[in-house]
Amino acid sequence: MNTIYRVGKWIEKHLKDSLMVMLVALMVGGLLLYTVSKASKDIVVVIDGTSQKYSTSRSRVVDALNALNIKVETKDKVSPALGSALKDGMTIKIERAVPVMVTLDGKSLKINSAEKTVSDMFKSEGIILSDKDKVTPKLDSPLKSGLEIKVVRVYEKLITSTSRIPYKTISKLNSSMEKGKTKILQEGVDGAREVVVKVIYEDGKEISRIKVQETIKKQPVNKVVAVGALAWFTPSRGGRRIPYTKSLKMKATSYTSNYACTGKRPGDKGFGITATGTKAKRDQSGFSTVAVDPRVIPLGTKMYSEGYGYARAEDTGGAVRSKIIDLYFEPGTAEFRNWYTRYVNVYILK
Questions:
Q1: What is the residue-averaged pLDDT of the chain?
Q2: How many of the other CB atoms lie within 10 Å of CB of 250?
Q3: Best mean pLDDT range from 30-44, 233-247, 294-308
Q4: Which of 316, 317, 313, 306 is nearest to 339 (CA)?
Q5: Under a CB-based contact definition with an 8 Å cutoff, are residues 72 and 94 in contact?
Q6: Which domain holds residue 68?
Q7: Are residues 111 and 209 in the same domain?
Q8: pLDDT at residue 324 above 50?
Q9: CA proximity to 122, closest of 279, 228, 109, 322
Q10: Among the three residues 133, 152, 171, which one is the final residue of a domain in this structure?
């Protein structure tokens, strides 16, 4: 009976031990399975285009990178974000920020940026450019380490100014006024011109000016001055001054109404009659007849010839050309016989 009892106790004891062993085994197995499941996350980390595979048990991107001793700087770009949950098979992309030098507004700035182009870097850094600013290299240039970027600020300003348009002085000859005298007929008034100029500045320094518009606000009024053209001469015989408008140095010949000079005799038609239809005459107290070239002195012109006196252009002659004047004398007179061809001053009278 005791034997049976002892066997029963042994079986009971060992049965309990077996259950404990099984329970422990199950717990250890579960722990191993949990640990294996946590370490089984395979990920790919791509840094500036270079890929590397890793296995990690971390649950977030930031924790995984820290565990793998992959440092992320402030300006580096990470995708997905550092706080994102880590998933098996995930690819983490890291774009490293590179240092560039930016010169603008009189300052040199060292900037770290992971942006792709110069334009993207300016947007990321909050640097505002105008359409006219000059950027070297171009905005679409790729960003790379050590790149030197220069910004020239371009500013345009329109300046409006008013300038004076000086009036002109116009002189008008007046044959009724003595030479050397003047008279203002109309006062001059300046005009006004408005000019719009575009001034271009680069980094605050003026580099060019371009006229973009010009408007005449007020037309000038010209000054008009009468200038005396009437000169005076005193006859060689003396007497009062005589006004004249023009003087000519002319070759003075002589003629009379005889046949030798005119080809006509008394009684012939037209004998003693001038080209203007007047009777040729020598008038010591008035105006005598002279022949002229009408292209030089118009017929009907009154004049004074030195050594002869007052005369009127009434006749022409075949030998009277250019600056030749043919003085009429009465036939058979001593005055006619004593006249010899000479150069004289001829004054055209007012």
A1: 88
A2: 22
A3: 294-308
A4: 306
A5: yes
A6: 41-95
A7: no
A8: yes
A9: 109
A10: 152
Cα separation, 3 vs 324, whole angstroms: 188
Residues 172, 178, 179, 181, CA torsion sign: negative
Q: How does strand 223-233 pair with strand 169-178?
A: parallel
pLDDT greater than 90 at residue 262: no
- In angstroms, rounded to a whole number, what is the distance separating the alpha carbons of residues 137 and 115? 15
Name the pTM for this structure: 0.51
Which residue from 51, 43, 49 is spatially nearest to 84, judged by alpha carbons? 43
Residue 82's domain is classified under what CATH number? Answer: 3.10.20.30
* Residues counted in the chain: 350
Q: Is residue 27 part of a domain?
A: no
Structure tokens given for 285: 């107290």
Q: How many CA atoms lie within 13 A of 121 on its CB side?
A: 31
Could you tell me if 303 and 296 are in contact, meaning their C-beta atoms sit under 8 angstroms apart?
no
Query: How many DSSP H helices and E strands does the chain contain?
Result: 5, 20
Residue 37's pLDDT band, with cuts at 50, 70 and 90, is very low
Specify the DSSP class assigned to residue 322.
S
Distances from the Cα of 212 to the Cαs of 133, 202, 208, 222, 274, in angstroms?
Answer: 21, 19, 13, 28, 70
Return all residues near 116 (Cβ < 8 A) that are at least 6 apart. Answer: 142, 143
Query: Position 154: which residue type?
Result: V
Q: Give strand pairing partners of 111.
A: 100
Per-residue pLDDT band for 3 (boundaries 50, 70, 90) equals low
Give the up-direction half-sphere exposure of residue 25: CA atoms within 13 A in the CB hemisphere.
6
- Tokens matching residue 10: 């042994």
Rounded distance between C-alpha atoms, residue 18 and residue 292, angstroms: 165
Instruction: Tell me: do 178 and 263 sit in the same domain.
Output: no
Does 44 score more than 80 pLDDT? yes
